[in-house]
Automatic annotation (TrEMBL):
Residues 3-202 form the Tetrapyrrole methylase domain. Keywords: Cytoplasm, Methyltransferase, rRNA processing, S-adenosyl-L-methionine, Transferase. This is Ribosomal RNA small subunit methyltransferase I. The gene is rsmI. PANTHER family: RIBOSOMAL RNA SMALL SUBUNIT METHYLTRANSFERASE I. GO terms for molecular function: rRNA (cytosine-2'-O-)-methyltransferase activity.
Amino acid sequence: MGKIYLVPTPIGNLKDITLRALEVLENCDLVAAEDTRQSLKLLNHFNIKKPLVSYHKYNEGTKAEELIRKAQEGYNIAVVSDAGSPGISDPGEVIVKRCIEENVDFEVLPGATAIITALVYSGLDTTKFLFRGFLPRENKERIPVIDEVKNSKETLVFYEAPHRLIVTLTFLREHLGNRRAVVARELTKLHEEIIRGTLEEIINHYETLEPRGEYVLLIEGKTLEEIKAEQEAVWKDLTIGEHIERYMEEGYNKKEAIKKVAKDRGLPKSEVYKHTIL
């Protein structure tokens, strides 16, 4: 029985390849590559000669079965994407699932990924973040996606191509508000650039400068102040009694509802209790 290795490759600077990744590439029998032309450049740079097969999102289902069979026959196979870690917005997830189902040994190597590099660069909250890859192109598909995350307190992370950058930034501003944001471009490459500001400021920047290269977009999560303001907007026109009733309609008992109303309004529980109407 052979083994399948998921091998991260540099996202720009070839010096970011790890010694372990080079060892696997040198010792494997076969390299399954998202783009064989790109991977050939990488292998040639490090003077590694290996057979290459195509493994991309359009053939991932059928190709995964072939690779599983080869591993079962004793081949050691390295799976690589154009840049970064296989399985993260690149082919890799399917073959991991098939390895688990078929009890084929596999190993995931750590290495370069644009998400973490951009997140640390951003200056936004790194203790919690939500990565959603590329947003769908059509509004009817991406509005539900953004609706799922718009109230998240986590830093939001997306990928985007240059020709869709302004459209996506405008969409995010319309649906998330003018939040703080960061755009990381061409990470680890010669023209690496980090732009920080509000979404509006970043849109204005790129309206006078043609977007080029690969982008990571990072958007500040909803702040506690925003959440509190939205919660207040829900009950500010309610009487205290109606406020209590609203919580009880949501499933809280009377005691719990009184406690929550007192906290919302900054009042003593005894004062809120006087307004109970049930």
